[in-house]
Amino acid sequence: MNTQNHTRPKIGLLYLDHVLRFFNRSNFKGWRDKIEQVTYHWGNDKDRFVAEVKRKKIDVLIGNIPATAYETFREIARELPGVRFLPSLDSQFSNKSKENVTHFCEKYDLPIPRTRIFYEVEEALAFLTSTDYPKIVKRSYGPSNYGGYFVHKVDNAEEALRLFSEKRYYPAYIQDFVPMKADIRVMLVGHQPVCAFWRRPPEGEWLTNTSQGGSMDYQAVPDGVLELAVKASKAANAEYWACDIAVSMDDDYTILECATAFAAFPYIRDWIGQYLIWLLAPQDFRKPYFAHRNWEEIGKIDSSLLRTMRYITFGQADYSTDTGEYAPADDRYRLLETSYQREEEWPSEAWNFQGNTPYKVIAADDSPFEKASPSLNPHIEQEFDTGIEQLQEVMIAPEQSNAADSKSLSEEELLAFFLQVKCVGKTLAGDIVSTLGAAETLRVLNHQPEILLQFRNLKHKKLAIIMDAWCEYCAEYQYRYEEAVE
């Protein structure tokens, strides 16, 4: 490798407080120059963060940005026009929300379940009380479904309205239910599939998440699924990418999720790192090679070992074999160089619907469902508070908040809340509140609950119970975590 570093960009790893790290320096084996680290501390940290990147003279920032910081990093990227973000902010557009996945797929004519998104309560109510069922309702905001706990199947209007009353999701994100055999996750590097596996639901169930009892295997993933994932990766111009693709009973394929943020074993993050350093310094690094359908053999290794295996490499077949035959080619799924585009494809002024859409919060005793339901659907006798109007209660990015203008809860009040949740004991409640403090605990509950998964003995199922209790707590005491939207 060339030891001259004058042509190599300076790399910085982008981290955020309380967010699990996708990369570390060891993923970029062979990069001889110093790799910097910069950490965003939330709140009003934008100016300090920009100054640190400039002071360290970083050329490339590598790392995924969580949904709750996405819009702030759009602003940061504009203040750092000479810094390349990997993945690009446009490639990470789908990370922010399910609705962004829908916008992305619709623009590039990628197959998805028929989806409706409502920001106005009256429109959502009219749709829910007149549409056909079953439907799938998802929490839109955020990159993860937390093991499927925020994905719901509703079989009639009464179930749908009760769900929104209880969960208070905003916006209302509703999809047609597609009966499916299974779904398939495909991970790609440089638009080449490097790992793919089936996720099959338990007998008689429809959720495929392994945390919900689903099973997985790596064999015989259809080429049509791989080709769809490649098409999506190329449309996103993503250096690395993952797609969840549903396989219907009729073997039709539809995209359920796609993003640059996904769970991956360390050896796959090593592959991404090797691809990125080749991309940044092709004069110094050899283009990596990933054997096609390697996952069919690697997937036979016990997962406990796969979680610790590093730097798996492949020898590329020569032009001829020992018998004189030509070696099989992988040209169909080649590793490609992704292009760097400075212009924005998804500017926030046009595509940040949650931040740009004005909405009037309506009191529970003046619920639009209560007024509209008799005329919309006289067959539903029980009336529910819709819950979908609670924009300020749910999912406003924390970087937009102003703590001085927000009502606060004390550590004692938050501790009392956790202790009333049946699955949370005194030790866990105390650990959460004492570790995060009152203000940060409040922010996490409202905007980034996945952070709680870092506490010992707190898994996805317990997190879902906590968030259900938090929604009930906010509704019961009419507590509103008000933040400035503008």
From TrEMBL:
PROSITE patterns named among the record's database cross-references: ATP_GRASP (PS50975)
User: Sorted alphabetically, which InterPro entries does this protein's record hold?
Assistant: ATP-grasp (IPR011761), ATP-grasp_RimK-type (IPR013651), ATP_grasp_subdomain_1 (IPR013815)
Please report the name of this protein according to its UniProt entry. Answer: ATP-grasp domain-containing protein
Name the SUPFAM superfamilies on file. Answer: Glutathione synthetase ATP-binding domain-like
Q: Where is the ATP-grasp domain?
A: 102-285
Q: Which PANTHER family match?
A: BETA-CITRYLGLUTAMATE SYNTHASE B-RELATED, RIBOSOMAL PROTEIN S6 MODIFICATION PROTEIN
This protein's source sits in the domain of life called Bacteria
Q: Organism, per UniProt?
A: Photobacterium rosenbergii
Q: Is Glycoprotein given among the entry's keywords?
A: no
Alphabetized UniProt keyword annotations: ATP-binding, Manganese, Nucleotide-binding
